Amino acid sequence: MNHGFTVDRASLPEPVMETHVSLFDGTNAGIALKDRPVFSVQHHPEASPGPTDSLYLFERFAGMMDAAKAV
């Protein structure tokens, strides 16, 4: 997925959880922390297949920024 590298899901420590899996080859495509406002995805959510398919990721990120400003 990323130039031949992938995350071994069995090696993810607490509090890391897998959130996305590639439909192409079953490799990890996203993680999040259970105890902090941190998440990532290993693809280009803005690219395709549709203009709003990944809108939830951007809304989640914006919500995290709003919550951080409120502190």
Summary tags:
alpha+beta; 71 residues; three-stranded antiparallel β-sheet; single chain
Please provide a brief summary of the model.
With 71 residues, the protein is of the alpha+beta class.
How would you characterize the overall build of this protein?
The chain contains one helix and three strands; from the N terminus they run βββα. It starts with 15 loop residues before the first strand and ends with a helix. The protein is of the alpha+beta class and 71 residues long. A three-stranded antiparallel sheet has the order 1-2-3, with no helix packed on it. Strand 1 and strand 2 form a beta hairpin. It is 23% helix and 21% strand. The model has no long low-confidence stretch (mean pLDDT 87). It is flat and about 40 Å long.
Spatial order of strands in the largest sheet: 1-2-3
Q: How large is the share of residues in beta strands?
A: 15-25%
Radius of gyration: 14 Å
Percent helix range: 10-25%
Uncertain residue ranges: none
Principal-axes geometry comes out as flat
Number of helices: 1
Give the N-to-C terminal Cα separation.
37 Å
| Average pLDDT metric | 87
- The SSE order reads EEEH
**What class do helices, strands and sheet pairing give?**
alpha+beta
Number of strands: 3
Biggest sheet features: 3 strands, antiparallel
SSE topology sketch:
Layout: E1 16-21, E2 28-33, E3 39-41, H1 55-70
